[in-house]
Design a protein that fits this description.
Elements (H helix, E strand, L loop, with lengths): L11 H19 L3 H35 L3 E2 L6 H4 L7 E2 H47 L2 H4 L4 H42 L1 H48 L1 H6 L3 H47 L7 H43 L4 H5 L10 E9 L9 E9 L3 E5 L6 H8 L7 E6 L2 E2 L5 H6 L1 E5 L7 E2 H6 L6 H10 L3 H4 L9 E2 L8 H13 L5 E5 L7 H14 L4 E5 L3 H6 L2 E4 L6
Parallel strand pairs: 5-12, 5-13, 8-11, 11-12
Antiparallel strand pairs: 1-2, 3-4, 3-6, 6-7, 9-10
This protein binds adenosine-5'-triphosphate.
Protein name: ABC transporter ATP-binding protein/permease
Family: Belongs to the ABC transporter superfamily.
GO molecular function, one term: ATP binding
């Protein structure tokens, strides 16, 4: 079974087991000590149930002891004499009180330990899964990222990652409940077997009733996941296209779309809670029916009164465990879809190996050569570039020109190894780019594009972009990019805070920040993909001339539609048009 298939389950009969085993199988891959931790949690949970059972029977014995004013209890744990018939288990009142107090304290301590371990494990799992998901998003093949919509990725990362910890908690509770039910069952058998049999019959009926709800839960889980994703997607798109929405006067339409989706989410959440309430009430009604039955027919059952009372109290205390057992199974069904989405994303192939595999790069000493390179994006009928061959010589200033859609950005992406050629090869100083460590290769390059991904932070932080360079370098880069002239006029200069979308900057100013970001590392090879196309011609020429002057010895490749820009360069590569 593949990772992605692990949670694709068969028909209903085996389905719940598959849900459970599928989750265990998946979790084991992410939490190496899963069995140990889970075992410990289940053990403390079951021991806590055992302590409760001992406490209940001792309490009832004590009540009878006090009622009869007797000094000793000859049957403090009601089931023991039946199991070890020759064993004298009579105990004085003080000892019974001591054991009872001990059982209560033990129950409390085990409950506390269980809660603390549970909370530690849940946060540990969440942290690990969140980290792995974030890592996967960074590691996914660039083309694969485009296949996921942002809303889906945000929902998985921010919300659905928590369901993994929730699923583990449900599994633990499942184990604890099964263990406790078995222990209570054995206790009841020892105390009063007819009542235990009634309890067993109750369990079977209860289980069958709850099964009726499993399918609804599963469907609801899937529908809820979809609705949440739609809502996140709409919120995300609205934020991204806020200006367009306002400019086209679409607020009312967006509001009504949002209200509908939000209503759907609320409706499904309500339905889920209603289902939970119905199953819980049904479960309680069943147990009260059984208890009533036992009371009405107790005279026909061959059980003495204290034993019958102990067994009945145990059966009553068993009810939350049976109830919770079913709730957890239904909950696991509800979590099936979000879990599947988390694990499917984690199962996607990454590209991390490209960062470390191959020879370390020393940059471009002689040339970058494209040899008959063809590249086709997945699921597209025609290649974006076909059998392209050219040289970019070290130290040369090259213009890459061609009509829109000719494949210029695709070539840039191939050089950056955001994609690999479908056929042909890219060779750097005689070594295929595929045999060069990607991270060390990227260390040698700098790139600026036409769309600048500015982030929330100061101007300086946006130029540094998580890297560490001295202030003089930031200033040098900003001046070279023609950005210093407007940064100096901002109220706080380089410390001016740019909001999420950096709305206070014009498109040309944003591009110049992006340019400074590329320049600040003083790399030997610079790629500019329409990086200055939003500037007026005069500013663009001024900025590029200064850059070329500064980069006299270095390699510069510029993609531009403007003839004047291409004319600044010493070498020109023409991409004729679409190969189709
Ligand atoms: N992610 C993608 N998936 C599928 N097809 C793509 C993708 N990106 C680009 N293409 C297609 O590849 C071809 C080349 O696109 P590319 O962006 O490289 O052209 P370009 O020369 O840079 O165009 P422009 O000058 O308009 O920026 C186009 O036909 C485009 O539709």
């Amino acid at each position: 079974m593949s990772k992605a298939d692990a949670l694709t389950f068969g028909r209903d009969g085996k389905r719940r087991h598959r849900v459970v085993f599928g989750i265990v199988h998946q979790l084991r891959e992410f939490i190496p000590s899963l069995y140990l931790v889970t075992g410990l949690m289940v053990a403390t949970g079951i021991l806590s149930g055992l302590a409760e059972m001992v406490g209940i029977t001792l309490l009832i014995s004590l009540i009878f002891l006090i009622a009869q004013d007797a000094p000793t209890v000859d049957q403090p744990l009601a089931w023991l004499p039946r199991i070890i018939s020759d064993f004298d288990v009579s105990l004085p009142k003080g000892v019974v009180i001591g054991i009872l107090a001990g059982a209560i304290v033990l129950r409390l301590l085990l409950g506390l330990a269980n809660g603390l371990i549970g909370s530690f494990v849940a946060h540990h799992i969440s942290e690990r899964i969140r980290g792995k998901l974030y890592d996967k998003i960074l590691d996914l093949a660039f083309q694969d990222i485009g296949r996921h919509d942002r809303g889906e990725l945000i929902t998985i990362l921010s919300t659905e990652s928590y369901t993994v910890a929730g699923a583990h908690a449900s599994l633990v509770r499942l184990g604890v409940n099964i263990g406790t039910i078995v222990i209570f069952g054995i206790g009841m058998l020892g105390i009063a077997w007819p009542i235990a049999l009634v309890g067993l019959a109750f369990g079977v009926v209860h289980n069958a009733t709850m099964r009726l709800f499993a399918t609804s839960y599963r469907r609801l889980g899937k529908a809820l996941s979809g609705s949440l994703e739609d809502l996140t997607q709409l919120s995300w798109t609205t934020l991204l296209t806020l200006k367009a929405v306002r400019s086209f006067g679409l607020e009312d339409k967006q509001r009504s779309l949002f209200a509908n989706l939000s209503h759907e989410v609320a409706r499904k959440l309500r339905r889920s809670e209603q289902l939970g309430a119905i199953t819980s009430i049904l479960s309680e009604a069943l147990i009260f029916g059984v208890l009533l039955g036992i009371m009405l027919f107790s005279s026909f059952l061959a059980v003495d009164f204290p034993a019958a009372l102990s067994a009945t109290v145990l059966l009553y205390r068993l009810q939350p465990h049976i109830n919770e057992l079913d709730q957890q199974i239904l909950h696991l069904h509800e979590m099936e879809t979000p879990l599947q989405r988390v694990f499917t994303l984690l199962a996607q192939p990454g590209e991390r190996h490209l960062n470390t595999r191959g020879f370390p790069s020393r940059g471009v000493e002689r040339a970058i050569e494209f040899k008959n390179v063809t590249f086709r994006y997945p699921d597209t009928p025609r290649p974006a570039i076909e059998s392209i061959s050219f040289f970019i010589k070290s130290g040369e200033k090259t213009a890459l020109v061609g009509p829109s859609g000719a494949g210029k950005t695709t070539i840039m992406n191939l050089i950056l190894r955001l994609a690999e050629p479908t056929s042909g090869s890219i060779v750097v100083d005689g070594t295929s780019l595929q045999n060069i460590q990607r991270s060390s290769w990227l260390q040698q390059l700098a790139i600026a594009g036409q769309d600048v991904e500015l982030m929330e932070g100061t101007v300086r932080e946006n130029i540094l972009f998580y890297r560490d360079f001295p202030d003089e370098d930031v200033r040098w880069a900003a001046e070279l990019a023609g950005a210093a002239e407007f940064i100096d006029e901002l109220s706080y200069g380089y410390e001016e805070w740019l909001g999420d979308e950096a709305v206070k900057l014009s498109v040309g100013q944003r591009q110049r920040i992006g340019l400074a970001r590329a320049l600040v590392g003083r790399k030997n090879t610079l790629f500019l993909d329409e990086a200055t196309n939003a500037l007026d011609e005069e500013t663009e020429m001024r900025v590029l001339t200064r850059i070329l002057d500064e980069y006299k010895e270095k390699t510069v490749v510029v993609i531009s539609h403007r003839q004047k820009v291409a004319a600044l360069m010493t070498n020109r590569i023409n991409l004729g048009g679409h190969p189709g």
